[in-house]
Design a protein that fits this description.
three-stranded antiparallel sheet, alpha+beta, 108 residues, elongated
């Protein structure tokens, strides 16, 4: 079984690639996006080791992994669940009313 990770992709740790991610983030911010790319440095250079929690300093990494952060926060999720539940309850009440009307019409 292949292990699946949360990162989107890896890039070589170069100034050009870091600037590319930076420009994407700037563009997303200008367009009021809820999303942002986050970099975590990976694959230690020879003679270097991962620090606590698997972290590396930028200068000690051969690559970096790109993650997508942001999107819906917990409040957004709770609000959408609440709106869904409200709509569900209204549909259930309307369905009961329609069924009662159908029952009355069928008995006439």
């Amino acid at each position: 079984m292949v292990t699946k990770y949360n990162h989107l992709f890896h890039l070589e740790n170069t100034q050009e690639n870091r600037d590319l991610i930076k420009s994407f983030n700037k563009n997303m911010k200008e367009h009021n996006s809820k999303w942002k790319f986050n970099i975590k440095y990976r694959k230690p250079k020879e003679g270097q080791k991962y620090g606590n929690g698997g972290s590396l300093k930028r200068e000690n990494a051969r690559e970096f992994a790109v993650y997508l952060n942001g999107g819906y926060n917990n409040e957004d999720i709770m609000n959408s669940r609440s709106r869904f539940w409200d709509a569900h309850c209204k549909v259930r009440i309307l369905t009961e009313k329609v069924n009662k009307v159908k029952e009355i019409l069928e008995n006439e």
